[in-house]
Automatic annotation (TrEMBL):
The keyword RNA-binding does not apply. Residues 315-324, 340-356 have a biased composition (Polar residues). PANTHER family: CHOLINE-PHOSPHATE CYTIDYLYLTRANSFERASE A, CYTIDYLYLTRANSFERASE. Residues 239-266 form a coiled coil. Its EC number is 2.7.7.15. Residues 330-339 have a biased composition (Low complexity). It catalyses: phosphocholine + CTP + H(+) = CDP-choline + diphosphate. GO terms for cellular component: endoplasmic reticulum. Belongs to the cytidylyltransferase family. It comes from Mauremys mutica. This is choline-phosphate cytidylyltransferase. Pathway: Lipid metabolism; Phospholipid metabolism; phosphatidylcholine biosynthesis; phosphatidylcholine from phosphocholine: step 1/2. Keywords: Coiled coil, Lipid biosynthesis, Lipid metabolism, Nucleotidyltransferase, Phospholipid biosynthesis, Phospholipid metabolism, Transferase.
């Protein structure tokens, strides 16, 4: 009996793009929906020791061909998957989803190891066994939970729970003095491999917390946990409080810087607008100035026009050449009695006469 081919199971790897419900795609090989005879959809999955098993019917394990072809509803393929399931996360849920969808009609039984067994063979857990049982119970793919599951599966355990196949990733799991605790299951043809979800595991989550321990310690102190509950010393508690105050101051300074940057940006935008408007107004002003006071401006034309009018107003009018010439009649002269000569003229009369002569001469010249 051969396990399912790897090409079929590789299609169940997590895909980010074009995924449907629960990250599944059309290539995942998930069968169409069918009525599910289980407790997982509406209420938590029951524990195996709370279910009455009918041992009157003989247990006959299904072959891989029979399981793949499909079985009647009253005889589902019983698949078993076990683990610690500490800090139950999406990687656990996806592994159980793959186990649930290995065959068209699957009844998934999940075994959870106890604290004592886990602490002795693997290490300390964050969640206790009751919390881990409860987390697995509320996974939608689980039909039954086995508490205090064994570390190594024995034929008696497989027969007790009438298990047809065991689902787990195919990486050899060395523990309890064995190179691979699933080696005998693989040799028996009962192993159905699943794929691990990369980037998420319990160890990864614990690593994140340990790496950023101070951050999470300060976080819980802010939320009201005491230093005693967090196992934090008095000095570290004061250090965390001081760091929190410093971070608040830094945040305020950062907020002020961002606001100041926004203000400066707005001022720059406003100044650019003002400069552009000033340039437009200045070009308009210079153009108007040159239009008025430039070499060929309106003021020069006005001055020329005014000068011409002033010269025309102050210059004497010339008499027309066609006007007749008026001759001045000589003024009568006074003679002394009994004298043939004219009397001497006074200086005033002399100047008048000279001016009259000059006037007559000028008029004659003009004529």
């Amino acid at each position: 009996m051969e396990p399912p081919s790897s090409s079929r199971l590789n299609s169940r790897k997590r895909r980010k793009d074009g995924s449907g419900p629960n990250g599944a795609t059309e290539l995942d090989g998930i069968p169409p929906k069918m009525s599910r005879h289980s407790f997982g959809l509406r209420e938590p999955a029951p524990f195996s020791d709370e279910i009455e098993v009918d041992y009157s019917k003989p247990y006959v394990r299904l072959t891989l061909e029979e399981a793949t072809r499909g079985t009647p509803l009253d005889r589902p393929v019983r698949v078993y998957a076990d683990g610690i399931f500490d800090l139950f996360h999406s990687g656990h849920a996806r592994a159980l989803m793959q186990a649930k969808n290995l065959f068209p009609n699957t009844y998934l039984i999940v075994g959870v190891c106890s604290d004592e067994l886990t602490h002795n063979l693997k290490g300390f857990t964050v969640m206790n066994e009751s919390e881990r049982y409860d987390a697995v119970q509320h996974c939608r793919y689980v039909d039954e939970v086995v508490r205090n599951a064994p570390w190594t599966l024995t034929p008696e355990f497989l027969a007790e729970h009438q298990i047809d196949f065991v689902a787990h990733d195919d990486i050899p799991y060395s523990s309890a003095g064995s190179d691979d605790v699933y080696k005998h299951i693989k040799e028996a043809g009962m192993f159905a491999p699943t794929q691990r979800t990369e980037g998420i595991s319990t160890s990864d989550i614990i690593t994140r917390i340990v790496r950023d321990y101070d951050v999470y310690a300060r976080r819980n102190l802010q939320r009201g946990y005491t230093a005693k509950e967090l196992n934090v010393s008095f000095i570290n508690e004061k250090k965390y409080h001081l760091q929190e105050r410093v971070d608040k101051v830094k945040k305020r300074v950062k907020d002020v810087e961002e606001k100041s940057k926004e203000f400066v940006q707005k001022v720059e935008e406003k100044s650019i607008d003002l400069i552009q408007k000033w340039e437009e107004k200045s070009r308009e002003f210079i153009g108007n100035f040159l239009e008025m006071f430039g070499p060929e401006g309106a003021l020069k034309h006005m001055l020329k026009e005014g000068k011409g009018r002033m010269l025309q107003a102050i210059s004497p009018k010339q008499s027309p050449s066609s006007s007749p010439t008026h001759e001045r009649s000589p003024s009568p002269s006074f003679r002394w009695p009994f004298s043939t000569k004219t009397p001497p003229s006074s200086p005033a009369n002399l100047s008048r006469s000279q001016s009259a002569v000059a006037y007559d001469i000028s008029e004659d010249e003009e004529d």
